[in-house]
User: Which sequence fits this backbone?
């Protein structure tokens, strides 16, 4: 059973930085894609950044140049470094992971419905931005 736990959320002033972590256990995939999503109150869940097993990445336009997704295979951990945070970045952030059979790739970052149906998800971590 795949188990994913996010951490690192919190409250920060606009312009500040946070690093989210997602520790994954229980999988044996060699080919996979992992991603960060976020959901603000009253809004749909949206893809923020994705990375696959060979390190290819994709970012939502709204976070390009400010957020960096990375992974540490030895620690089975996914990261999201968030810099220059804006009030509109406030949301619950979720990590998601999908194996090769899902067909999900970094290019599918915008296909939230598919990720909802095919990926494993963490419980989310709250990010609050004060202006």
Assistant:
């Amino acid at each position: 059973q795949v188990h994913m736990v996010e951490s690192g959320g919190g409250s920060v002033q606009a312009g500040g930085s946070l690093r989210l972590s997602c520790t994954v256990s229980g999988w044996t995939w060699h080919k996979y894609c992992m991603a960060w999503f976020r959901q603000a109150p009253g809004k749909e869940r949206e893809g923020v950044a994705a990375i696959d097993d060979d390190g290819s990445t994709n970012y939502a336009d709204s976070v390009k140049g400010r957020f960096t997704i990375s992974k540490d295979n030895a620690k089975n951990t996914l990261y999201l470094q968030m810099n220059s945070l804006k009030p509109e970045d406030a949301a619950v952030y979720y990590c998601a992971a999908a194996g090769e059979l899902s067909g999900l790739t970094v290019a599918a970052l915008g296909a939230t419905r598919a990720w909802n149906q095919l990926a494993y998800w963490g419980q989310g971590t709250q990010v609050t931005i004060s202006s």
The radius of gyration is 14 Å.
